[in-house]
Amino acid sequence: MSIPFQKYHGTGNDFLIIHADEHVPDRGALAERECDRTVGVGADGILFLAPEEKFNPPRVVMTLFQPDGATAPMCGNGARCAAEWTMDRTGADSVMIDTQAGTLRADRDGENVVIEMTPLTFVPDEVPVMADEPVLKAEIEGLEVSVVNTGVPHAVSFVDNVDNVDLEAIAPPVRHADAFPDGTNVTVASPDGSGGFRQRTYERGVEGETDSCGTGAVAVAVVARRLGLTDADPVDVHPPGGHLRVSFNDRGRPTLAGPVEHEFDGEVAVEPPVEP
């Protein structure tokens, strides 16, 4: 049996979107198979979306399964893709997204989808990270990092040039460090010469570098402000896949803005093929 999906991406961070009403016996196994870029469709995750269009603005419940088959409570670009999918269905320019990390509002702004992110925290128990006080500059597994939760944990390291970083070598030891009970994403950033930052992120659950990471972009912006590396608002962040903009609204919460594209539609089998 096959079920339909739509594929969306936000600055290269790509997702298969499946209506939550579709019967999938094992969502984690489906994500492991179809996110694989060799044997599956290829994606950074699968979003199962349950629209609740009776509300104004419309609401959608988002559940993200990552390529390792586990769920993640929050994904900035995933939430923006979920918002675009809901806007495409309803014609609305604003939607509410219920995630495991809280309820978020997203709005269309020209070519961009802007989402209000979850409240951020440097509090060690809430990241979580094994520390007695906020980790603003500490060496973990040989990398100097600042640690923040922007919906998911991030260890952020500022370097001279992100292109010179062997992310696949330096990130896994930090991602799996004993200091992080739940693991962490690992993000490196460097000044772009125009007041913003370039970004690369090794994502927990993907277990590799992605073209873009929305929670990572927010982490770069908030840590840069906390360390006094910028006082800009908005903060422009450039992952490999494009341009994101992080602002801070009148409630003190970060917002993430960037383009979203609907790539194509297709079908996937809900069960793996039978071996001959």
TrEMBL record:
EC number: 5.1.1.7
UniProt-listed InterPro entries: DAP_epimerase_DapF
SUPFAM superfamilies: Diaminopimelate epimerase-like
Keyword Amino-acid biosynthesis tagged: yes
Recorded GO CC terms: cytosol
Catalysed reaction equations from the record: (2S,6S)-2,6-diaminopimelate = meso-2,6-diaminopimelate
Localization in the cell: Cytoplasm
Positions of the record's site feature: Could be important to modulate the pK values of the two catalytic cysteine residues: 154, 203
Active site positions: 75, 213
Subunit structure: Homodimer.
Similarity field: Belongs to the diaminopimelate epimerase family.
PANTHER family named in the record: DIAMINOPIMELATE EPIMERASE, DIAMINOPIMELATE EPIMERASE, CHLOROPLASTIC
Protein name, as recorded: Diaminopimelate epimerase
Species of provenance: Natrinema zhouii
UniProt lineage: Archaea, Methanobacteriati, Methanobacteriota, Stenosarchaea group, Halobacteria
